[in-house]
């Protein structure tokens, strides 16, 4: 946004002390500190800018720490041993330092790239305006959203705000900087970026910005497929996949990007029956429980989930077959996966249309054959994400749904995804890479290694299958309000935290063992486990009625009846350590990292809100 001549309103410019928001220097990575210090040492101004400032203020973990400086790109490159200039329209310098890559941009580059007849020059700088302030202000006017227009100087503990970004952070609102229509017309990728930010931070969207998104949503198809893939990966791999899909659907962008899944959600909304769960949203809800901004996955994981779901919608499967399919992926071997599924999948899973029935009367040979067939169907579904012809063929099942023919998943990515399932399709009996532990190796998962991706994929599917079950005549109620488009805004805007569900697979594996063995293992584990005093476990009354429990994460409070002897054991454990390991038999433990600490959160939010109120 470039203001008209003589209308530079300096009264809105703010400088805030970062320490008032609880921001400390230890929150900034050493690599970013080094970049700032080196540039400052050479006499240049340098600041942290954009999303990292926003996230630090909101007490969230930044995805990255970008730097902007008064040095030009060639000067930046000369200061570092490993640095390269990339990009054509908006070039930046990628600085490799201490194992990290820091994006460093130049005030000069942005000014040249955005120069127009209405650009404000130094000759128009208001009287009494500091030159540094003017440089920062002029740059901030070219940002996409007000909350991304903040500058932070950690050396002086100062946050610079020239566009009311702090006020919008205080009200948790996403607002385009200047005219939203002009902003999206200039770069429609800002629509995807804005929805991603709103989904991750549970932001509301200003009315003007929302109207502009609706108007320019179709322009997304004009973006380069590589840019779409990048933005979609940021949406789906960093812990905000489910709310991102909700917003894409709300603004009709899912029809452009993933028309098959959009058509599925449209049909689910029309049915309006409580038992008609959205398995698609449940899959991505469970994906969000295992990945975060600082622990993302490779794109192959969410592409695999999309293909898997497409296969189920086109060819509904027996619940036991899906359990077995996921169990084999999770355990890394056919034999152990089959045994686990047969021992623990004695439930009726209520997902329509994906799950057709539930049968406990299949032989191992039958299960192996049907799991291999399901893997082949998933392989066929991958093509609809990469080939326009296959996409149109699949969309023929939804004649009333629009299809632009856009595919953006690279063929190389699709080939990697196909390898995840090919081992089950080609020779399932030979698949034997059983896991020695059940912890997620995040560095390996981020690189897309097949064994790690299969494991997490199996875990997500098992948890999804376990979250909607019918035990006899009793339906385990789930909240399906997010099916309705009109309630998606409420669902995405609420800042509530989601804990682990009480019917995750971790709760359900080991109780298939005899109760006597549980008692035997419980006592020595009390001394070995590091117990978190926020989680409590109560045991189930009937061991035979329990379903699959995966030996991995911590278990939250589960309100089921228990036998007197089991309750006595649990109470004894709780008195000692106020928690229980995720698997009483395996002795395994994973500590899930949280972006915002629970302790004192409410009072912290109140203090934070008061800081946003300017006097």
Q: What general outline do the C-alpha atoms trace?
A: elongated
- Count of DSSP helices? 26
| Low-pLDDT runs | 1-6, 469-548, 552-604
Mean residue pLDDT:
78
Strand order of the largest sheet: 1-8-7-2-3-6-5-4
Strand content: 5-15%
Describe the structure.
The model is unreliable at 1-6, 469-548 and 552-604 (pLDDT under 50). The longest helix is centred in the middle third of the chain and has 19 residues, at 364-382. A hairpin with a 4-residue loop joins strand 7 and strand 8. The chain has 26 helices and 15 strands. Helix 8 (189-201) runs parallel beside helix 10 (225-236) and helix 16 packs across helix 17. An eight-stranded mixed β-sheet has the order 1-8-7-2-3-6-5-4, sandwiched between helices. It is α+β, with helices and mostly antiparallel strands.
Keywords, please?
alpha+beta; 615 residues; 15 strands
Summed up:
It contains 26 helices and 15 strands.
How do the helices and strands line up, and which of them pair or pack?
Layout: E1 14-17, H1 30-41, E2 46-49, H2 51-57, E3 66-69, H3 73-78, E4 83-86, E5 92-97, E6 100-106, H4 107-113, H5 131-140, E7 151-153, E8 158-161, H6 165-170, E9 173-174, H7 180-186, H8 189-201, E10 204-205, H9 207-216, H10 225-236, H11 241-250, H12 254-257, H13 259-271, H14 279-288, H15 299-314, E11 317-318, H16 319-331, H17 334-344, E12 348-349, E13 355-357, H18 364-382, H19 388-395, H20 411-426, H21 442-447, H22 450-466, E14 469-471, E15 474-475, H23 488-493, H24 515-528, H25 564-577, H26 601-612
Parallel strand pairs: 3-6, 9-10, 11-13
Antiparallel strand pairs: 1-8, 2-3, 2-7, 4-5, 5-6, 7-8, 12-14, 14-15
